[in-house]
Write a structure and sequence with these properties.
The chain is α/β, with parallel strands linked by helices. Helix content is about 45%, strand content about 15%. It is built from 19 helices and 16 strands. The chain has an eight-stranded parallel β-sheet. It has a four-stranded antiparallel β-sheet with strand order 1-2-8-9. The chain has a two-stranded antiparallel ribbon with strand order 5-6. A hairpin with a 2-residue loop joins strand 1 and strand 2. Helix 9 runs parallel beside helix 15, helix 14 crosses helix 15 and helix 14 crosses helix 16. The longest helix has about 35 residues. The protein is globular, with a radius of gyration of 22 Å. It starts with a strand and ends with a helix. The mean pLDDT is about 95. The structure holds acetyl coenzyme *A, the ligand O=CC(=O)O and magnesium ion.
Protein backbone atom coordinates (compact mmCIF):
# COMPACT_ATOMS: atom_id res chain seq x y z
CA UNK A 1 0.00 0.00 0.00
CA UNK A 2 1.27 3.46 -0.82
CA UNK A 3 0.08 6.46 1.12
CA UNK A 4 0.95 9.94 -0.05
CA UNK A 5 1.33 13.06 2.03
CA UNK A 6 2.31 15.70 -0.47
CA UNK A 7 5.77 14.55 -1.53
CA UNK A 8 6.22 11.69 0.94
CA UNK A 9 5.47 8.16 -0.14
CA UNK A 10 4.95 5.48 2.47
CA UNK A 11 5.72 2.02 1.13
CA UNK A 12 5.38 0.18 4.46
CA UNK A 13 2.23 -1.64 5.51
CA UNK A 14 -0.41 0.57 7.13
CA UNK A 15 -1.67 -1.69 9.91
CA UNK A 16 -4.71 -0.70 11.99
CA UNK A 17 -3.67 2.18 14.23
CA UNK A 18 -0.73 3.28 12.09
CA UNK A 19 -2.87 6.06 10.61
CA UNK A 20 -2.82 7.65 14.08
CA UNK A 21 0.95 8.06 13.84
CA UNK A 22 1.33 8.55 10.09
CA UNK A 23 -1.08 11.47 9.97
CA UNK A 24 -0.91 13.90 7.06
CA UNK A 25 0.22 16.70 9.41
CA UNK A 26 2.97 14.60 11.00
CA UNK A 27 4.22 13.47 7.60
CA UNK A 28 4.20 17.03 6.27
CA UNK A 29 6.25 18.09 9.29
CA UNK A 30 8.77 15.36 8.49
CA UNK A 31 8.76 16.27 4.84
CA UNK A 32 9.58 19.90 5.66
CA UNK A 33 12.50 18.83 7.84
CA UNK A 34 13.79 16.30 5.32
CA UNK A 35 13.65 18.89 2.51
CA UNK A 36 15.42 21.41 4.69
CA UNK A 37 18.16 19.23 6.14
CA UNK A 38 18.82 16.28 3.81
CA UNK A 39 21.49 18.18 1.86
CA UNK A 40 23.45 19.01 4.98
CA UNK A 41 23.15 15.43 6.24
CA UNK A 42 24.53 14.17 2.92
CA UNK A 43 27.47 16.60 3.14
CA UNK A 44 28.28 15.47 6.65
CA UNK A 45 28.18 11.80 5.65
CA UNK A 46 30.50 12.64 2.75
CA UNK A 47 32.77 14.42 5.18
CA UNK A 48 32.98 11.23 7.27
CA UNK A 49 34.35 9.47 4.19
CA UNK A 50 37.00 12.10 3.51
CA UNK A 51 38.11 12.07 7.15
CA UNK A 52 38.37 8.29 6.90
CA UNK A 53 40.60 8.67 3.86
CA UNK A 54 42.89 10.96 5.82
CA UNK A 55 42.99 8.46 8.69
CA UNK A 56 43.80 5.72 6.17
CA UNK A 57 46.79 7.84 5.11
CA UNK A 58 48.04 7.94 8.70
CA UNK A 59 46.52 11.20 9.97
CA UNK A 60 45.92 11.09 13.73
CA UNK A 61 43.02 12.98 15.31
CA UNK A 62 43.80 15.81 17.70
CA UNK A 63 41.98 18.58 19.53
CA UNK A 64 40.96 21.12 16.88
CA UNK A 65 42.99 24.29 16.45
CA UNK A 66 40.06 26.21 14.93
CA UNK A 67 37.84 25.66 17.99
CA UNK A 68 40.43 26.38 20.66
CA UNK A 69 38.49 29.51 21.64
CA UNK A 70 35.50 27.33 22.55
CA UNK A 71 37.60 25.05 24.74
CA UNK A 72 39.37 27.96 26.39
CA UNK A 73 36.47 30.34 27.05
CA UNK A 74 33.96 30.36 29.88
CA UNK A 75 30.43 29.25 29.08
CA UNK A 76 27.95 26.74 30.37
CA UNK A 77 24.99 24.86 28.96
CA UNK A 78 21.51 26.23 29.73
CA UNK A 79 20.08 25.20 33.12
CA UNK A 80 18.56 21.73 33.19
CA UNK A 81 14.88 21.12 33.92
CA UNK A 82 13.95 19.64 37.28
CA UNK A 83 13.30 16.14 36.02
CA UNK A 84 16.81 15.91 34.53
CA UNK A 85 18.67 16.91 37.67
CA UNK A 86 18.89 13.43 39.15
CA UNK A 87 19.79 10.78 36.58
CA UNK A 88 21.72 8.37 38.76
CA UNK A 89 20.30 5.25 37.10
CA UNK A 90 19.13 5.13 33.51
CA UNK A 91 17.74 1.93 32.04
CA UNK A 92 17.75 1.40 28.28
CA UNK A 93 15.74 -0.92 26.10
CA UNK A 94 13.89 -1.34 22.84
CA UNK A 95 10.57 0.34 22.07
CA UNK A 96 8.70 -2.92 22.65
CA UNK A 97 5.37 -2.45 24.47
CA UNK A 98 5.98 -4.75 27.44
CA UNK A 99 9.58 -3.63 27.88
CA UNK A 100 8.60 0.04 27.88
CA UNK A 101 6.23 -0.64 30.77
CA UNK A 102 8.81 -2.75 32.62
CA UNK A 103 11.51 -0.13 32.12
CA UNK A 104 9.32 2.77 33.21
CA UNK A 105 8.33 0.83 36.33
CA UNK A 106 11.88 -0.39 37.03
CA UNK A 107 12.76 2.21 39.66
CA UNK A 108 15.36 3.82 37.38
CA UNK A 109 15.36 7.61 37.18
CA UNK A 110 15.34 7.63 33.38
CA UNK A 111 14.32 5.20 30.66
CA UNK A 112 15.97 5.59 27.30
CA UNK A 113 13.61 4.11 24.72
CA UNK A 114 15.75 2.98 21.84
CA UNK A 115 14.94 3.17 18.13
CA UNK A 116 18.67 2.63 17.55
CA UNK A 117 20.96 -0.23 18.56
CA UNK A 118 18.51 -2.14 20.78
CA UNK A 119 15.93 -2.02 18.01
CA UNK A 120 15.86 -3.96 14.79
CA UNK A 121 14.28 -1.28 12.58
CA UNK A 122 11.57 -3.28 10.87
CA UNK A 123 8.75 -1.01 9.75
CA UNK A 124 6.48 -2.58 12.37
CA UNK A 125 9.00 -2.14 15.21
CA UNK A 126 9.43 1.53 14.32
CA UNK A 127 5.75 2.43 14.00
CA UNK A 128 4.59 0.20 16.87
CA UNK A 129 7.35 1.83 18.91
CA UNK A 130 5.90 5.28 18.19
CA UNK A 131 2.41 4.08 19.18
CA UNK A 132 3.79 2.51 22.36
CA UNK A 133 5.59 5.69 23.39
CA UNK A 134 2.57 7.83 22.63
CA UNK A 135 0.50 5.62 24.95
CA UNK A 136 3.22 5.55 27.61
CA UNK A 137 3.35 9.35 27.71
CA UNK A 138 -0.42 9.55 28.09
CA UNK A 139 -0.41 6.85 30.78
CA UNK A 140 -2.73 4.60 28.78
CA UNK A 141 -0.23 1.93 27.79
CA UNK A 142 -1.03 -1.62 28.84
CA UNK A 143 -0.07 -5.11 27.78
CA UNK A 144 -1.32 -8.63 28.43
CA UNK A 145 1.11 -11.51 28.03
CA UNK A 146 0.06 -14.98 26.79
CA UNK A 147 -0.40 -16.13 30.41
CA UNK A 148 -2.86 -13.34 31.06
CA UNK A 149 -0.48 -11.18 33.12
CA UNK A 150 -1.46 -7.54 32.71
CA UNK A 151 1.19 -4.82 32.57
CA UNK A 152 0.38 -1.21 33.41
CA UNK A 153 2.36 1.83 34.49
CA UNK A 154 2.99 2.48 38.18
CA UNK A 155 2.09 5.84 39.62
CA UNK A 156 5.75 6.83 39.69
CA UNK A 157 7.68 6.13 36.51
CA UNK A 158 11.05 6.88 34.96
CA UNK A 159 11.58 10.05 32.94
CA UNK A 160 11.44 9.21 29.25
CA UNK A 161 14.21 9.81 26.74
CA UNK A 162 14.28 8.61 23.16
CA UNK A 163 17.23 7.61 21.01
CA UNK A 164 16.52 8.08 17.29
CA UNK A 165 18.60 6.20 14.74
CA UNK A 166 21.96 7.71 13.69
CA UNK A 167 22.80 9.90 10.70
CA UNK A 168 24.04 6.99 8.58
CA UNK A 169 20.67 5.20 8.55
CA UNK A 170 17.74 5.63 6.23
CA UNK A 171 14.06 4.80 6.61
CA UNK A 172 13.47 2.90 3.41
CA UNK A 173 9.69 2.73 3.82
CA UNK A 174 9.36 6.49 3.49
CA UNK A 175 10.45 8.11 0.26
CA UNK A 176 10.84 11.73 -0.69
CA UNK A 177 11.14 12.31 -4.43
CA UNK A 178 11.76 8.58 -4.69
CA UNK A 179 14.62 8.52 -2.18
CA UNK A 180 14.56 7.02 1.34
CA UNK A 181 14.56 9.70 4.02
CA UNK A 182 16.83 10.04 7.04
CA UNK A 183 15.91 7.56 9.78
CA UNK A 184 17.04 10.14 12.37
CA UNK A 185 14.60 12.76 11.09
CA UNK A 186 11.85 10.14 10.84
CA UNK A 187 12.23 8.82 14.41
CA UNK A 188 12.79 12.24 15.93
CA UNK A 189 10.09 13.91 13.87
CA UNK A 190 7.28 11.48 14.64
CA UNK A 191 8.09 11.37 18.34
CA UNK A 192 8.40 15.13 18.61
CA UNK A 193 5.31 15.88 16.54
CA UNK A 194 3.03 13.62 18.54
CA UNK A 195 4.41 14.10 22.03
CA UNK A 196 6.24 17.36 22.58
CA UNK A 197 3.19 19.29 23.80
CA UNK A 198 1.88 16.43 25.95
CA UNK A 199 5.29 16.08 27.59
CA UNK A 200 5.51 19.78 28.34
CA UNK A 201 2.02 19.68 29.88
CA UNK A 202 3.27 16.89 32.16
CA UNK A 203 6.11 19.18 33.39
CA UNK A 204 8.60 17.07 31.43
CA UNK A 205 9.82 17.56 27.87
CA UNK A 206 10.93 16.00 24.63
CA UNK A 207 14.24 14.51 25.72
CA UNK A 208 16.66 12.67 23.46
CA UNK A 209 19.87 10.67 23.30
CA UNK A 210 21.88 11.32 20.13
CA UNK A 211 24.05 8.47 18.86
CA UNK A 212 27.26 7.89 16.90
CA UNK A 213 28.22 11.44 16.01
CA UNK A 214 31.69 11.96 14.60
CA UNK A 215 32.06 15.72 14.90
CA UNK A 216 30.61 18.87 16.41
CA UNK A 217 29.31 19.77 12.95
CA UNK A 218 26.95 16.82 13.22
CA UNK A 219 25.81 18.13 16.60
CA UNK A 220 25.22 21.50 14.95
CA UNK A 221 22.89 19.83 12.47
CA UNK A 222 20.89 18.28 15.32
CA UNK A 223 20.71 21.67 16.98
CA UNK A 224 19.43 23.28 13.77
CA UNK A 225 16.78 20.58 13.51
CA UNK A 226 15.73 21.21 17.11
CA UNK A 227 15.41 24.96 16.48
CA UNK A 228 13.44 24.31 13.30
CA UNK A 229 11.12 21.75 14.94
CA UNK A 230 10.40 23.94 17.96
CA UNK A 231 9.65 26.92 15.71
CA UNK A 232 7.47 24.87 13.43
CA UNK A 233 5.32 23.51 16.26
CA UNK A 234 5.48 26.72 18.30
CA UNK A 235 7.19 25.14 21.25
CA UNK A 236 9.55 27.40 23.20
CA UNK A 237 13.16 27.23 22.11
CA UNK A 238 15.26 25.22 24.53
CA UNK A 239 12.44 22.84 25.45
CA UNK A 240 14.21 19.92 23.79
CA UNK A 241 17.06 18.47 25.83
CA UNK A 242 19.52 16.05 24.32
CA UNK A 243 22.35 13.99 25.74
CA UNK A 244 25.04 13.16 23.23
CA UNK A 245 26.70 9.78 23.32
CA UNK A 246 30.42 10.24 23.03
CA UNK A 247 30.94 6.97 21.28
CA UNK A 248 33.32 7.63 18.44
CA UNK A 249 37.00 8.24 18.79
CA UNK A 250 36.67 11.44 16.75
CA UNK A 251 33.94 12.89 18.97
CA UNK A 252 36.20 12.34 22.00
CA UNK A 253 38.34 15.18 20.65
CA UNK A 254 35.32 17.50 20.32
CA UNK A 255 33.41 17.11 23.59
CA UNK A 256 33.47 20.81 24.45
CA UNK A 257 32.50 21.72 20.92
CA UNK A 258 29.57 19.28 20.91
CA UNK A 259 28.24 20.69 24.18
CA UNK A 260 28.71 24.17 22.78
CA UNK A 261 26.77 23.48 19.60
CA UNK A 262 23.83 22.15 21.58
CA UNK A 263 24.21 24.62 24.44
CA UNK A 264 20.52 25.58 24.75
CA UNK A 265 19.42 21.99 24.18
CA UNK A 266 22.15 20.06 25.92
CA UNK A 267 21.62 17.57 28.72
CA UNK A 268 25.26 16.54 28.83
CA UNK A 269 27.24 13.63 27.50
CA UNK A 270 27.27 9.89 27.96
CA UNK A 271 30.17 7.46 27.53
CA UNK A 272 28.91 5.00 24.94
CA UNK A 273 31.74 2.60 25.53
CA UNK A 274 30.75 -0.16 23.08
CA UNK A 275 30.45 2.01 20.01
CA UNK A 276 33.56 3.84 21.14
CA UNK A 277 35.61 0.63 21.00
CA UNK A 278 34.06 -0.19 17.64
CA UNK A 279 34.80 3.27 16.32
CA UNK A 280 38.45 3.06 17.42
CA UNK A 281 38.84 -0.20 15.51
CA UNK A 282 36.95 1.11 12.49
CA UNK A 283 38.70 4.45 12.17
CA UNK A 284 42.16 2.85 12.43
CA UNK A 285 41.23 -0.18 10.35
CA UNK A 286 44.29 0.31 8.14
CA UNK A 287 46.80 1.13 10.83
CA UNK A 288 49.45 -1.40 11.76
CA UNK A 289 49.77 0.39 15.11
CA UNK A 290 46.23 -0.41 16.20
CA UNK A 291 45.09 -3.86 17.21
CA UNK A 292 42.94 -4.68 20.21
CA UNK A 293 43.09 -7.85 22.31
CA UNK A 294 40.05 -10.07 23.00
CA UNK A 295 36.90 -8.01 23.47
CA UNK A 296 36.53 -9.01 27.11
CA UNK A 297 39.96 -7.57 27.92
CA UNK A 298 39.00 -4.11 26.70
CA UNK A 299 37.36 -2.93 29.89
CA UNK A 300 36.79 0.61 31.15
CA UNK A 301 39.95 0.37 33.23
CA UNK A 302 42.37 0.04 30.30
CA UNK A 303 44.25 3.34 29.93
CA UNK A 304 42.57 4.76 26.81
CA UNK A 305 39.05 3.97 28.02
CA UNK A 306 39.69 5.46 31.41
CA UNK A 307 41.18 8.59 29.86
CA UNK A 308 38.08 8.99 27.71
CA UNK A 309 35.64 8.68 30.58
CA UNK A 310 37.63 11.06 32.82
CA UNK A 311 37.80 13.61 30.01
CA UNK A 312 34.02 13.35 29.54
CA UNK A 313 33.47 14.03 33.26
CA UNK A 314 35.84 16.97 33.38
CA UNK A 315 34.47 18.51 30.18
CA UNK A 316 30.85 18.13 31.21
CA UNK A 317 31.29 19.44 34.73
CA UNK A 318 33.22 22.48 33.58
CA UNK A 319 30.12 23.35 31.50
CA UNK A 320 27.58 22.50 34.25
CA UNK A 321 26.50 19.47 32.26
CA UNK A 322 25.87 15.97 33.55
CA UNK A 323 28.34 13.25 32.61
CA UNK A 324 26.54 9.94 32.38
CA UNK A 325 28.46 6.67 32.51
CA UNK A 326 27.97 3.72 30.22
CA UNK A 327 26.51 0.30 29.87
CA UNK A 328 27.88 -2.67 31.74
CA UNK A 329 26.71 -5.49 29.48
CA UNK A 330 26.05 -7.99 32.27
CA UNK A 331 22.47 -9.12 32.84
CA UNK A 332 21.14 -11.48 35.52
CA UNK A 333 22.10 -15.10 34.81
CA UNK A 334 19.24 -17.52 35.23
CA UNK A 335 19.86 -20.94 36.81
CA UNK A 336 23.53 -20.39 37.65
CA UNK A 337 24.02 -18.65 41.00
CA UNK A 338 27.81 -18.45 40.69
CA UNK A 339 27.70 -16.77 37.28
CA UNK A 340 24.84 -14.60 38.50
CA UNK A 341 26.91 -13.39 41.46
CA UNK A 342 29.82 -12.68 39.12
CA UNK A 343 27.58 -10.64 36.82
CA UNK A 344 26.28 -8.52 39.71
CA UNK A 345 29.80 -8.06 41.11
CA UNK A 346 31.03 -6.81 37.74
CA UNK A 347 28.18 -4.32 37.42
CA UNK A 348 28.77 -3.12 40.98
CA UNK A 349 32.51 -2.60 40.38
CA UNK A 350 31.84 -0.76 37.12
CA UNK A 351 29.31 1.55 38.77
CA UNK A 352 31.60 2.20 41.75
CA UNK A 353 34.39 3.32 39.44
CA UNK A 354 32.01 5.60 37.56
CA UNK A 355 30.54 7.15 40.69
CA UNK A 356 33.95 7.67 42.31
CA UNK A 357 35.38 9.22 39.15
CA UNK A 358 32.57 11.77 39.01
CA UNK A 359 29.87 10.42 36.71
CA UNK A 360 26.43 11.73 37.63
CA UNK A 361 24.55 8.66 36.56
CA UNK A 362 24.91 5.43 34.68
CA UNK A 363 23.23 2.94 32.37
CA UNK A 364 21.90 -0.54 33.04
CA UNK A 365 20.54 -3.01 30.49
CA UNK A 366 18.09 -4.90 32.67
CA UNK A 367 15.57 -4.06 35.42
CA UNK A 368 17.33 -6.62 37.63
CA UNK A 369 20.41 -4.37 37.68
CA UNK A 370 18.66 -1.14 38.68
CA UNK A 371 18.92 -1.57 42.45
CA UNK A 372 22.61 -2.54 42.29
CA UNK A 373 23.48 0.60 40.35
CA UNK A 374 21.21 2.72 42.52
CA UNK A 375 22.75 1.49 45.78
CA UNK A 376 26.21 2.43 44.50
CA UNK A 377 25.19 5.88 43.27
CA UNK A 378 23.08 6.60 46.37
CA UNK A 379 26.05 5.77 48.55
CA UNK A 380 28.75 7.57 46.58
CA UNK A 381 27.00 10.50 44.89
CA UNK A 382 25.32 13.30 46.82
CA UNK A 383 21.85 14.04 45.48
CA UNK A 384 20.99 15.07 42.83
CA UNK A 385 24.35 14.91 41.00
CA UNK A 386 28.03 15.74 41.40
CA UNK A 387 28.43 18.38 38.72
CA UNK A 388 30.09 20.51 41.42
CA UNK A 389 33.14 18.17 41.27
CA UNK A 390 35.02 19.94 38.51
CA UNK A 391 37.87 17.39 38.29
CA UNK A 392 40.40 20.10 37.47
CA UNK A 393 43.03 17.55 38.44
CA UNK A 394 42.28 15.59 35.27
CA UNK A 395 44.51 16.26 32.25
CA UNK A 396 43.98 14.03 29.25
CA UNK A 397 46.20 14.21 26.19
CA UNK A 398 45.59 13.10 22.63
CA UNK A 399 48.17 10.35 23.10
CA UNK A 400 46.26 9.01 26.10
CA UNK A 401 43.03 8.89 24.13
CA UNK A 402 44.82 7.12 21.31
CA UNK A 403 46.73 4.62 23.46
CA UNK A 404 46.16 1.07 22.26
CA UNK A 405 45.10 -1.37 24.99
CA UNK A 406 47.42 -4.30 25.58
CA UNK A 407 46.49 -7.94 26.02
CA UNK A 408 46.20 -11.21 24.21
CA UNK A 409 44.19 -12.58 21.32
CA UNK A 410 42.97 -16.05 22.13
CA UNK A 411 41.19 -18.79 20.25
CA UNK A 412 38.35 -18.43 22.75
CA UNK A 413 38.15 -14.71 21.93
CA UNK A 414 38.03 -15.43 18.20
CA UNK A 415 35.37 -18.11 18.74
CA UNK A 416 33.25 -15.77 20.85
CA UNK A 417 33.44 -13.04 18.23
CA UNK A 418 32.31 -15.36 15.46
CA UNK A 419 29.61 -17.00 17.56
CA UNK A 420 28.22 -13.71 18.87
CA UNK A 421 28.41 -11.98 15.48
CA UNK A 422 26.38 -14.71 13.78
CA UNK A 423 23.87 -15.09 16.61
CA UNK A 424 23.34 -11.35 16.90
CA UNK A 425 22.75 -10.78 13.20
CA UNK A 426 20.29 -13.70 13.17
CA UNK A 427 18.42 -12.08 16.04
CA UNK A 428 18.44 -8.68 14.32
CA UNK A 429 17.12 -10.16 11.07
CA UNK A 430 14.36 -11.82 13.12
CA UNK A 431 13.30 -8.39 14.39
CA UNK A 432 15.06 -8.34 17.77
CA UNK A 433 17.71 -5.66 18.17
CA UNK A 434 19.00 -6.62 21.63
CA UNK A 435 19.63 -10.19 22.61
CA UNK A 436 20.98 -12.13 25.58
CA UNK A 437 23.93 -14.12 24.23
CA UNK A 438 26.28 -16.06 26.52
CA UNK A 439 24.78 -14.20 29.49
CA UNK A 440 25.59 -10.74 28.14
CA UNK A 441 23.43 -8.08 26.56
CA UNK A 442 24.37 -7.84 22.91
CA UNK A 443 23.20 -5.09 20.63
CA UNK A 444 24.35 -3.62 17.33
CA UNK A 445 27.33 -1.85 18.92
CA UNK A 446 28.70 -4.88 20.77
CA UNK A 447 28.20 -7.09 17.71
CA UNK A 448 30.11 -4.54 15.62
CA UNK A 449 33.14 -5.00 17.87
CA UNK A 450 33.04 -8.75 17.23
CA UNK A 451 32.80 -8.31 13.49
CA UNK A 452 35.46 -5.58 13.37
CA UNK A 453 37.92 -7.66 15.39
CA UNK A 454 37.61 -10.72 13.18
CA UNK A 455 38.05 -8.54 10.07
CA UNK A 456 41.08 -6.81 11.51
CA UNK A 457 42.77 -9.85 13.03
CA UNK A 458 42.75 -11.56 9.62
CA UNK A 459 44.43 -8.59 7.94
CA UNK A 460 46.72 -7.27 10.65
CA UNK A 461 50.27 -8.68 10.84
CA UNK A 462 49.85 -8.98 14.61
CA UNK A 463 46.53 -10.81 14.33
CA UNK A 464 48.15 -13.84 15.93
CA UNK A 465 46.63 -16.13 18.54
CA UNK A 466 48.58 -16.50 21.77
CA UNK A 467 49.46 -20.04 20.70
CA UNK A 468 51.30 -18.60 17.67
CA UNK A 469 48.75 -19.28 14.90
CA UNK A 470 48.10 -16.44 12.47
CA UNK A 471 44.41 -15.65 12.13
CA UNK A 472 43.49 -16.22 8.50
CA UNK A 473 40.34 -16.48 6.43
CA UNK A 474 40.78 -20.26 6.47
CA UNK A 475 40.92 -20.35 10.26
CA UNK A 476 37.88 -18.07 10.37
CA UNK A 477 35.90 -20.46 8.16
CA UNK A 478 37.01 -23.49 10.15
CA UNK A 479 35.98 -21.96 13.47
CA UNK A 480 32.79 -20.57 11.95
CA UNK A 481 31.72 -24.11 10.94
CA UNK A 482 32.51 -25.39 14.44
CA UNK A 483 30.61 -22.54 16.08
CA UNK A 484 27.63 -23.05 13.78
CA UNK A 485 27.49 -26.65 15.01
CA UNK A 486 27.59 -25.40 18.61
CA UNK A 487 24.80 -22.88 17.93
CA UNK A 488 22.72 -25.54 16.18
CA UNK A 489 23.04 -27.91 19.10
CA UNK A 490 22.10 -25.14 21.52
CA UNK A 491 19.09 -23.69 19.70
CA UNK A 492 17.90 -26.94 18.08
CA UNK A 493 17.55 -27.88 14.42
CA UNK A 494 14.17 -26.25 13.99
CA UNK A 495 15.06 -22.82 15.39
CA UNK A 496 18.30 -22.96 13.48
CA UNK A 497 16.34 -23.40 10.25
CA UNK A 498 13.69 -20.79 10.98
CA UNK A 499 15.88 -18.31 12.86
CA UNK A 500 17.74 -16.63 9.99
CA UNK A 501 21.05 -18.31 10.87
CA UNK A 502 21.86 -19.15 7.26
CA UNK A 503 21.26 -15.57 6.11
CA UNK A 504 23.15 -14.21 9.10
CA UNK A 505 26.16 -16.45 8.43
CA UNK A 506 26.24 -15.32 4.81
CA UNK A 507 26.15 -11.68 5.83
CA UNK A 508 28.81 -12.16 8.50
CA UNK A 509 31.04 -13.90 5.93
CA UNK A 510 30.56 -11.09 3.44
CA UNK A 511 31.49 -8.49 6.04
CA UNK A 512 34.61 -10.43 7.01
CA UNK A 513 35.72 -11.28 3.48
CA UNK A 514 35.28 -7.80 1.97
CA UNK A 515 38.58 -5.96 1.86
CA UNK A 516 36.66 -2.69 2.14
CA UNK A 517 35.59 -2.49 5.77
CA UNK A 518 31.82 -1.85 5.79
CA UNK A 519 31.11 1.18 7.95
CA UNK A 520 28.08 -0.37 9.68
CA UNK A 521 26.79 -3.92 9.59
CA UNK A 522 23.26 -2.56 10.00
CA UNK A 523 23.44 -0.85 6.58
CA UNK A 524 23.92 -4.17 4.79
CA UNK A 525 21.55 -6.01 7.12
CA UNK A 526 18.80 -3.40 6.62
CA UNK A 527 18.57 -4.37 2.95
CA UNK A 528 17.36 -7.79 4.12
CA UNK A 529 14.86 -6.46 6.66
CA UNK A 530 11.14 -6.14 5.90
C1 LIG B 1 25.65 -0.49 23.63
C2 LIG B 1 24.30 0.09 23.79
O1 LIG B 1 23.79 0.71 22.89
S1 LIG B 1 23.45 -0.24 25.23
C3 LIG B 1 21.80 0.32 24.95
C4 LIG B 1 21.05 -0.51 24.01
N1 LIG B 1 20.82 -1.85 24.49
C5 LIG B 1 19.76 -2.14 25.28
O2 LIG B 1 18.99 -1.26 25.56
C6 LIG B 1 19.58 -3.54 25.76
C7 LIG B 1 18.57 -3.58 26.86
N2 LIG B 1 18.34 -4.91 27.37
C8 LIG B 1 17.54 -5.79 26.76
O3 LIG B 1 17.01 -5.55 25.70
C9 LIG B 1 17.28 -7.10 27.48
O4 LIG B 1 17.69 -7.01 28.82
C10 LIG B 1 17.99 -8.34 26.88
C11 LIG B 1 17.50 -8.53 25.45
C12 LIG B 1 19.47 -8.18 26.88
C13 LIG B 1 17.58 -9.56 27.71
O5 LIG B 1 16.19 -9.62 27.70
P1 LIG B 1 15.40 -10.90 28.21
O6 LIG B 1 15.96 -12.11 27.56
O7 LIG B 1 13.94 -10.63 28.01
O8 LIG B 1 15.76 -10.92 29.75
P2 LIG B 1 15.00 -11.61 30.92
O9 LIG B 1 14.28 -12.84 30.48
O10 LIG B 1 15.97 -11.77 32.03
O11 LIG B 1 13.93 -10.51 31.35
C14 LIG B 1 13.18 -10.58 32.53
C15 LIG B 1 12.13 -9.53 32.47
O12 LIG B 1 12.75 -8.25 32.42
C16 LIG B 1 12.32 -7.55 31.26
N3 LIG B 1 13.45 -6.79 30.73
C17 LIG B 1 14.71 -7.22 30.47
N4 LIG B 1 15.46 -6.21 30.05
C18 LIG B 1 14.67 -5.11 30.04
C19 LIG B 1 14.90 -3.76 29.69
N5 LIG B 1 16.10 -3.33 29.30
N6 LIG B 1 13.87 -2.90 29.80
C20 LIG B 1 12.65 -3.34 30.21
N7 LIG B 1 12.38 -4.61 30.55
C21 LIG B 1 13.38 -5.49 30.47
C22 LIG B 1 11.88 -8.61 30.29
O13 LIG B 1 10.98 -8.08 29.34
C23 LIG B 1 11.24 -9.61 31.24
O14 LIG B 1 9.96 -9.14 31.59
P3 LIG B 1 8.79 -10.12 32.14
O15 LIG B 1 9.36 -10.88 33.29
O16 LIG B 1 7.72 -9.18 32.54
O17 LIG B 1 8.42 -11.00 31.00
O1 LIG C 1 25.32 3.28 23.05
C1 LIG C 1 26.10 2.89 23.86
C2 LIG C 1 27.34 2.25 23.54
O2 LIG C 1 28.04 1.84 24.47
O3 LIG C 1 27.64 2.16 22.35
MG1 LIG D 1 26.19 3.12 21.06
Amino acid sequence: MITEAKGLQITGNIKPGYEQILTTEALQFIERMERHFSGRRAELLKRRKSVQEELNQGMLPDFLEETKHIRESDWTIAPLPNDLQDRRVEITGPVDRKMIINAMNSGANVFMADFEDANSPTWENCIDGQLNLRDAIRGTISFKNPNGKVYELNERTAVLKVRPRGWHLEEKHVLLDGQPISASIFDFGLYFYHNAKALVEKQSGPYFYLPKMESHLEARLWNEIFVYAQNDLRIPQGTIKATVLIETILAAFEMDEILYELKEHSAGLNCGRWDYIFSFLKKFRNSNDVIFPDRQQVTMTVPNMRAYSLLAIKTCHSRNAPAIGGMAAQIPVKNDPVKNDEAFAKVKADKEREARDGHDGTWVAHPGMVSTAKEVFDLLVPKPNQIFRKREDVHVTAQELLAVPEGTITEAGLRTNINVGIQYIASWLSGRGAAPINNLMEDAATAEISRAQVWQWIRHPKGILEDGRKITEELFHQIKEEELAVIKSEVGEETFKSGNFEESTKLFEQLIEADDFADFLTNAAYEKLS
